User: What shape does this take?
Amino acid sequence: MSSFSESALEKKLSELSNSQQSVQTLSLWIIHHRKHSGSIVRVWHRELKKAKTSRKLTFLYLANDVIQNSKKKGPEFTRDFEGVLVDACSHVARETDDSCKKHMERLLNIWQERNLYRADFIQQLKLAIEDSNSPRQRNTADEKKSLKRSFQKVQEEEEEDDDDDDYRAHYSPRETDATGPQLTEDLVKALQDLENAASGDAAVRQKIASLPQEVQDVSLLEKITDKEAADKLSKTVDEACLLLAEYNGRLAAELEDRRQLARMLTEYIRSQKEALSEREKKLEEYKQKLARVTQVRKELKSHIQSLPDLSLLPNVTGGLAPLPSAGDLFSTD
Assistant: This one.
């Protein structure tokens, strides 16, 4: 399990996805470093505000998982999150739509049912969500949605197939000349990143292979006869659980990266086929131009050869007297 640092947490938060596996893996890592709960909550709050709108609810799901699963180990996270949750809920509610707010309200109801926080504090959080519906804030949100819809409309007009809008918006085959180099660069980077993929991490695989049999076989628990041995095994099991959860999370992320790479390759092949088709048309067009110019050249050459050679004509001016000048014409002599 890697050591804690704010930069490490920032990186993990940036890689957080809305999958259950991703949330639970990061939650386990955070709980493991609960002695840094103050710093963790501060970084979480800061990164939540910087996150894209579509990812903000996932941050709340992460907080929920940490709060619920850390309660047995200590009150640190329940206490530290309490200091930022009102502002966090207000922020997320302002930045997101009604559908997201319904998910937030459902989350608060679960907290209330499980007594994770006092009823009056839950009410504060609900009011923070409701206050986001005030006229001034709603107008601001509507303006943002209007701008967003306008942009999406442009994308939809450019893209007839919406199966993968986010990806196709960046790699439209209709803009092969503009996006080709960028797509090529992204493909190379994606392939390079996979060189350090989780499936190739021999060191972690060796650690997992070296785990004692006791952490994998429930029947061996009967051999534990004293508390000291039980505590030692409990610590080993916790470490094994964290190690496997983190590795599974990395493998899940690798699978998603490979799916994304497959989509990129499909799009790249499509864009190259379209580029090839366009270039073939251009080649045919210029072949026809070349044929026309060659024909003109041939006809011109033939025409030139049919013209008389003026250098072979006799010199018709050599034996004639020069014409009289104006003075000679008007002379009285």
User: Anything to note?
Assistant: The chain is about 70% helix and 0% strand. The mean pLDDT is 79. The longest helix spans residues 227-306.
